[in-house]
Design a protein that fits this description.
This protein has 206 residues and is mainly α. 46% of the residues lie in helices and 9% in strands. It is globular. It starts with 14 loop residues before the first helix and ends with a helix.
Length: 206
């Protein structure tokens, strides 16, 4: 009779774990962050049209009303997988898949709308609505952002993976220089949780 293997404790999936993240330091990494806790226990955060609208609003990209949400969602997920492969390949010192590189280059070939400054009636700079994008233009904006990150050695060197086992978010360590790489995606989230866990361990074993 084979020995029974104890079940691995399951990490509770909370509303916080499912929340969208917009603090990776990069538009394209914010897309990668729509899957949480990868690769151990992936949590899909971009799980329908409502979340798609929330993510687009969060990163300042506005698809046109006539664009098919299901097609855009599927295309963003495909781009997300390619982006994850490219970034983790850099962090793991391996070559990315050739299809990931090809997809990024293909999507980036579409020119998104040129950026424009807006002014109010007094001629002062004003905030205006984000330009409405086709699916191809929106995908191009994300792909071009990732290419800008990966093509610059100085920016690539800032890529990090959060140390928290229940997070592992990819982010750019572009905060104030301290001489040490930042260990956490966010001190408010994973950094403080790690500190609290260390405090509990010390209290339990004085």
């Amino acid at each position: 009779m084979s020995e029974e293997v104890p079940a691995t404790p399951r990490t509770r999936i909370t509303a916080k774990a499912r929340s969208l993240r917009f603090d990776s330091g990069s538009l394209s990494l914010d897309l990668v962050a729509t899957v949480g806790r990868r690769p151990s226990t992936p949590i899909e955060r971009l799980d329908g049209p409502e979340r798609l609208r929330a993510w687009c609003a969060g990163v300042g990209l506005a698809p046109r009303d006539e664009e098919d949400p299901a097609a855009l969602l599927a295309a963003l997920r495909e781009l997300r997988d390619a982006a994850y492969d490219l970034v983790t390949a850099e962090l793991d010192d391996r070559a990315p898949r050739s299809d990931s590189v090809a997809l990024l280059n293909t999507l980036a070939g579409v020119a998104p709308p040129a950026p424009r400054l807006r002014t109010d009636a007094d001629g002062r700079l004003a905030h205006g609505p984000a330009p409405l994008l086709t699916t191809a233009e929106l995908l191009s904006a994300v792909a071009r952002d990732l290419i800008a990150v990966m093509a610059d050695p100085r920016t690539r060197a800032l890529l990090r993976t959060c140390d928290a086992e229940t997070c592992r978010m990819l982010y750019l360590d572009n905060g104030p220089g301290t001489g040490k790489p930042r260990r956490w995606c966010s001190m408010e989230r994973c950094g403080n949780s790690a500190k609290a866990a260390r405090h509990r361990r010390r209290a339990a074993h004085p």
